[in-house]
């Protein structure tokens, strides 16, 4: 039996173009940021999110109506969308910024995503948002939580397992917590952020890469969404951490105490 229209799922996956995880980061000469003239790729946690959306379609088959990916950034961000489309997404939305614009902050991104979801409501109402728990460039780990708050939707963060029941519009999520694992049962619509243990993303095959070139990408601007992505914070200075000084060995406790005194470290009474 085919699912009814009311039980079909529309999945939205936000993705971000970041410096490739294997690149050694260097600070800019002006110390206002890092050198961006290096290899970029899709944020690894977002790759996991795209993979999970595609796997849900493979498990639920006809119950997943669409997988749409969205990114916010300059011209080259379209490459990230094409990668997601080659992995199995159906279409993309590019919220276009000037290449010289600063990277949007998490609250701005969350507001833009909320506007996209509200905009899609009439055509393909979003049932599930899957996104990486954090981006490896700023490590903020805030966008998913902020988006859920703005939408007043349930959220399940740091997911290591996701099981969706399209008929009941429910999801069982296993998530990482300090004490181990926690299981949540959530009603859709839902925001899920992905952890590393959720899956291992697939490599896009050459035929799928070629097919992705024909998949539609809609280009819009922040103005079209009615959002302002101007930064609220100012970076005063970026510097590399101090280089570690090599350690040394001591023969006995007396030498250790002498070395500590030379370093200006004195005993403290309990």
TrEMBL record:
Residues 32-229 form the Electron transfer flavoprotein alpha/beta-subunit N-terminal domain. Transmembrane segments: none annotated. Gene3D superfamilies: HUPs. Its main location: mitochondrion. Binds 1 FAD per dimer. Binds 1 AMP per subunit. It is found in: Mitochondrion matrix. Its cofactor is FAD; AMP. CDD domains: ETF_beta (cd01714). PROSITE patterns: ETF_BETA. It comes from the Eukaryota. PANTHER family: ELECTRON TRANSFER FLAVOPROTEIN BETA-SUBUNIT (PTHR21294), ELECTRON TRANSFER FLAVOPROTEIN SUBUNIT BETA (PTHR21294:SF8). Belongs to the ETF beta-subunit/FixA family. Heterodimer of an alpha and a beta subunit. The electron transfer flavoprotein serves as a specific electron acceptor for several dehydrogenases, including five acyl-CoA dehydrogenases, glutaryl-CoA and sarcosine dehydrogenase. It transfers the electrons to the main mitochondrial respiratory chain via ETF-ubiquinone oxidoreductase (ETF dehydrogenase). This is Probable electron transfer flavoprotein subunit beta.
């Amino acid at each position: 039996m085919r699912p009814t229209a009311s039980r079909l799922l529309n999945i939205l996956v936000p993705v971000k173009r970041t410096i490739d995880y294997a690149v050694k980061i260097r600070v800019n000469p002006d110390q206002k940021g890092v050198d961006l003239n290096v290899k970029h790729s899709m944020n690894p946690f977002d790759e996991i999110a795209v993979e999970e959306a595609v796997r849900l379609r493979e498990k639920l088959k006809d119950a997943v109506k669409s997988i749409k990916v969205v990114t916010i950034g300059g011209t080259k961000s379209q490459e990230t969308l094409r990668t997601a489309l080659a992995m199995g997404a159906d279409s993309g939305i590019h919220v276009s910024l000037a290449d010289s614009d600063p990277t949007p902050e998490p609250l701005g991104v969350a507001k833009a995503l909320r506007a996209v979801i509200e905009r899609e409501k009439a055509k393909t109402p979003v049932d599930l948002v899957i996104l990486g728990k954090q981006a490896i460039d700023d490590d903020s780990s805030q966008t998913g939580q902020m988006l859920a708050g703005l939408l007043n939707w349930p959220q399940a963060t740091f997911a290591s397992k996701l099981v969706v029941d399209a008929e009941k519009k429910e999801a069982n999520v296993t998530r990482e917590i300090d004490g181990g694992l926690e299981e949540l049962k959530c009603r859709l619509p839902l925001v899920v952020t992905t952890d590393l243990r959720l899956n291992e993303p697939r490599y896009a095959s050459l035929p799928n890469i070629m097919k992705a070139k024909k998949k539609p990408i809609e280009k819009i601007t922040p103005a079209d969404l009615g959002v302002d992505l101007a930064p609220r914070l100012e970076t005063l200075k970026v510097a590399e951490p101090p280089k570690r000084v090599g350690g040394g060995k001591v023969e006995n406790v007396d030498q250790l105490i002498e070395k500590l005194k030379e370093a200006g470290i004195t005993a403290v009474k309990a």
